[in-house]
What does this fold into?
Amino acid sequence: MLNTRLAVLVLFLSSAGWGLTWLPIKALSDMGLDGLHLVFIAFLSGALLLSPWLYRQRWHWQQSAGLMLMIALAGGFANASFQTAIYHGDVIRVMILFYMLPVWSVIGGRIFLKEKVDAVRLIAVALCLSGAFIILDIGHTSWTGVSWIDLLAMGSGMGLAATNILFRFTQDIPVMSKVSAMFIGCTVLIGLSLMLFTSSAALPGNDAVLWAIAYGALWLTLITTGTQWGVTQMDAGRSAVIIVVELVVAVASTALIVTAGLKLYEIVGGLMVLSAAVLEGVRSDEGARPADNDEGLLAEKSRSL
It folds into this structure.
């Protein structure tokens, strides 16, 4: 039986860690490191740190190399597209489109993993999305046509949902190997972004680069591993609802540290998201179906790879 209680706690703490990533990112930005260089250095350092696990555990994934490639592409695209969208677009608008994640996860979990979608799950998703939209003040956001940045933002949520589904489907592959593939995929795609979106910014002094390496090798690696381990222990829709706690932590920590204060609508939205996370976190596992290797479209694909 899956230890979902521990998984919920680990996923909650990892999501909180994601919500606090703005702190090192802001600090490194103040040191002169621009966005794409920061992400490239951080994910490259994480990929190098995790590569020994990928090599040592190769016997577990060599027969599923096709699925590992899919994890690298989906996870890499999710991270690279989100960072690119944040770097080039309006942060609030990007966040709104990204936090459609629970919808894609519930739909994908139902189609590919045959997971049950009951009334509790639907209520949790509705609470989660409503709370996220309230926090992001969607009513006062300018919507003047869909751009390529909007498509990247929405695609990043779909990419993360696909990554989480793939992690849950490939239960026989060690999590560290899958996280390593995810980091490698992101490093390659961000590297391509650096070539496509030429930046005039030069790398700052060694201190900023060393802190970026530490950020990637320690912080990002830890919270990504925790997030993806948690995802493998529960339904895709359930994990997606809990992950949105990241947004609440980001807003609350910004208000506390920058001493901006939380507005009423942010408090209400945050409570809605937390209620959805608690609703999914304390529910029983009855009726949830694990990913079986002989069902769903992914199973058909895995037999052909």
User: Anything to note?
Assistant: The longest helix spans residues 206-232. Residues 4-304 form one domain. DSSP finds 15 helices and no strands in the chain.
